[in-house]
Amino acid sequence: MADVIEAAETHAEDHGGHGEHESFGIDNRKLGMWLFLSSEFLFFGALITNYMVYGNDTFGATVVPREIYDIPFTSVSSFVLLMSSLTMVLAHHSLATGDQNGTRTWLLATALLGSIFLGGQVFEFYEFINVYGMTLTTNPASSAFFMLTGFHGVHVAIGVIMLMSLFGMSRRQGGLSEGHGMNLELVGLYWHFVDIIWIVIFTIVYLLGAV
Amino acid sequence: MTDEAHHAPHPTTGQYVKIAIVLAVVTAVEVALFYIDEAVDMAGWDGPLLIILSFFKFVVVIGWFMHLRFEKPLLSRFFAGGFILALSLYGIVVGSFLVGLITR
Lengths: 211, 104
Description:
The complex is a heterodimer of chains A (about 210) and B (about 100). Chain A is mainly α and about 210 residues long. Helix content of chain A is about 75%, strand content about 0%. Chain A has 6 helices and 2 strands. Chain A has a two-stranded antiparallel sheet. Chain A is elongated. About 5% of the residues of chain A have low confidence. Chain B has 4 helices and no strands. In chain B, helix 2 runs antiparallel to helix 3. At the A-B interface, helix 2, helix 3 and helix 6 of A face helix 2, helix 3 and helix 4 of B.
């Protein structure tokens, strides 16, 4: 076993001395996150395609998602999520410049903006269900809508939990270490990805409606 | 992406704010296009315009906020690979529905 470890270390040194945590000169965690995000295109692609195909399929029911969208409200939500990408990148930038207080402030701001977005989504779902009577099982169009926006909301919620974890870690330890800096970068990549998926959803689902 | 781009310095705080303002303005233009099309029929031009604007925002967030522009080209290839695969696969699915190859 010791021989294997020694061989691995020698191999790493032969390839630029990056150590066992790097492949192709890129940190394995970062490489893994980019691959994961790349695979997420297929996940959300399936849900977006499902909406594009079934978005007009009312199956006899009178209520159609695209006829009850509140565009001004969703536009504000989109703006909030877009600005959370700015606060996220500022958190990363603050950590890179050694500003631990700034990092905590921007992390908290990002989590707050994400929570506001989620609150807006909960309000939208509440209105659709209780005012318009459109539920997950009303028709294929409503199923496609709730599945797509619901799964995106779950991704945002996971992001908020990760942001708050980093914030709590930073408060407990009096700042994020260099090792935690990579964690922040990975959470940042995830957060921006959630934002770009919303950019697509906002245009295709809300502004363009269905095919 | 060239090595020069890879070694280029990351944007400053001010530049990040400017990028965010551009993204916010593009979002406002998108919403305006939606209402313009409701008031005056744009004869189908709103769709391509909205997709172009959305793609612009998509690229800006990936390139600058996700720093892909400043990363090694390998990451861009991995990411673009997933995107193109998804776009091709689902493009074929939607296209099949549109031309009636798949019936519901």
